[in-house]
Amino acid sequence: MISTDIAIWIGALWVIFAYSFIIRDNPLFKFCEATMIGTTAGVFTVIAFDNIKKLALLPLIEKQAYINIIPLIIGILLLAQVSRRQFYLSRLPIAIMVGGGIGTAMSRTITSNIVIQLRSIMVPLPKTPFEILNIIILIVGLLGTLLIFTYTRERKGPFGWVTKIGEYLMMAAMGSTFGLLITMRVTYVITRLQIIVFDLLGLG
Amino acid sequence: MTETKGMDWLAFFRKYRRQTTQSLIIAIIIIPLIRPLGLPLPITERPKAVYAIIETLGPETKVICSMNIAIGLMGDVNPGTIAIFHHLFRRGVKLYIVGFNEDGVSVILEPYILAAAKPEIYGYVYGKDWCVLGYVPGGTVAWSTFAANIRSAVQYDKYGNYIDDLPMMKGVNSLNDFDIILDCGGDHTDIVVQQWADPYNKPYISSAGIGGVTIWLEPYFKTGQLDGYVAGVTQGAEYEQLVGISGRALSTIDGVALSNLFILTLVILGNIMLFKSKVR
Q1: What is the pLDDT of residues B101-137, one digit of tens each?
Q2: Residue ranges per domain, chain B?
């Protein structure tokens, strides 16, 4: 049963327009691309204004949160980027954003990403042959991967071997990530095609 | 003779165009959508861990959900997220949803997640059983601020209601007042671990894209900083099976399996051809 919903028709047509790029670049693809960029810009502009309203203006007007005047002024200073003469004013909000972000992240990164991760490799002494093998792989892999980033020593002898193992392990990890990303993209294509097969044509 | 045959294949692969692969993948995907193959789907450990955790939750449990699904990831993340939402609604938990990226709460949540999971069919009432606290901009600082003092980050919910007017917000002031963290999206696993799960010592489950497994999810799962995850459409389908719903993930996995097989074949063929050309 073919759908009569206009939204589904638009969605399906845009999917076809987007994938028409497989054949070659064409006006339908360009139209689809332009509408997507335009729509995205429009939606995110509305979201940005809605945020200013809910996070700053409404509390200021309805709840007399006068402290909100400060972030509003700092936010307005960001717009100084468009002026060559007043450009320097925009450095203050950028400094606050970058500094605040780095400060907040750094304080927790050491505990969560270094201490706890390192603690996880300090496991009890292995008992079974399988556990021993696992620990050897873990230690050699960890050392090898870390030693790759040693640039002050020539990779020869045992040092070269360990770094080579680290290199292979890193390639395996990156290959796995890349493979999973491809799977993710394929999934994305499938869900787009579901709009045509299930929603538009009513098949399946 | 063999030499000539090999040369032909090399010539064929040199002329091979990427459009051929793309068209073939689309064909391979469409066939199982129309006629499902019903490939077996064993349920793996990670979704089982999420299921077991949610099974222990009850009507008094407060779940904080950070909804950060990016538009580009929704095909992969949405099925698992919808299945988890069904499960949460079935358990009757109190669900607090907040977003830290532009897409999650503002674009994805209502038309895709809630339209499919339908809180109203489970008797959920907005403000009493579930609420959407909106999008909080500011990255890491926003996560940290929200966790320390919700009202300093959010004063109005997504629909413009003052959050103190919502009955379920009474006595909820910081992350300490929640029982479990659910992150949907998976792109911010490191931030959730650093700013929420570790400092507040809360159980943490995630619904994420398959692309983030190696870099975002497994390192934290192995250390116990992440208690379970549903990654990608395949694990989403597994979770649909666990919960007993027939969502879109189950119809997707045949296509994923066939296209993966096809890509793997191309990778092997490409390597054989590369090896042959080097030998020559």
Answers
A1: 888 998 899 999 999 999 999 999 999 999 999 999 9
A2: 2-35+255-279, 49-246
Cross-strand partners of B230:
B207
* A186 shares contact with chain B (CB less than 8 Å): yes
Up-side HSE of residue B47: CA atoms within 13 Å toward CB? 26
Selecting from A58, A120, A193 the residue whose C-beta is nearest the C-beta of B222 gives A120
Distance (Å, rounded) from C-alpha B192 to C-alpha B200?
11
Residues of chain B with pLDDT > 70, as a percent, come to 96
- B194·A113 Cβ contact <8 A: yes
Residue B178, φ and ψ in degrees, nearest 5: -100, 160
- Other beta carbons less than 10 A from residue B200's beta carbon: 17
Partner-chain contact B76 A184, CB within 8 Å: yes
Asked if A177 and B211 come within 8 Å (Cβ–Cβ), the reply is yes
The residues that bridge with B64 in the sheet, in sequence order, are: B96, B181
Q: Where are the domains of chain A?
A: 125-199
Tell me if B131 sits within 8 A of B157, measured CB to CB: yes
Question: What's residue B166's pLDDT?
Answer: 95
The partner residue sitting opposite B137, judged by closest CB among A51, A116, A117, is A51
Mean predicted confidence (pLDDT) in A163-179: 89
Residues 108-147, chain A: which have Cβ within 8 Å of B? 108-109, 111-113, 116-117, 119-120
Distance in angstroms (rounded) separating the CA atoms of residues A48 and A37: 16
- Mark yes or no for CB contact B210/A184 under 8 Å: yes
pTM of the model: 0.87
Mean pLDDT of A117-123: 81
Instruction: Give the number of other CB atoms < 10 A from CB of residue B215.
Output: 15
**Euclidean distance between CA atoms A150 and A128, whole angstroms:** 34
Structure confidence at residue B1 (pLDDT): 44
**Half-sphere exposure in the Cβ direction for A183 (13 Å, CA):** 27
- Identify all chain A residues contacting B232, using CB atoms and an 8 Å cutoff: 180, 183-184, 187
Q: Are B45 and B214 in contact (CB under 8 A)?
A: no
pLDDT tens digit sequence for B173-205: 999 999 999 999 888 899 999 999 999 999 999
Q: Decide if A193 and B134 are in contact by the 8 Å CB cutoff.
A: no
Give the helix ranges, DSSP H, for chain B.
Answer: 2-15, 18-34, 45-55, 74-91, 102-103, 115-117, 139-148, 150-153, 189-192, 198-200, 218-223, 232-243, 248-279
Q: How many other CB atoms are found less than 10 A from the CB of residue A34?
A: 10
Instruction: Tell me the ipTM for this assembly.
Output: 0.82
Instruction: Assess if CATH 3.40.50 describes domain B49-246.
Output: yes
pLDDT at res. B213: 80
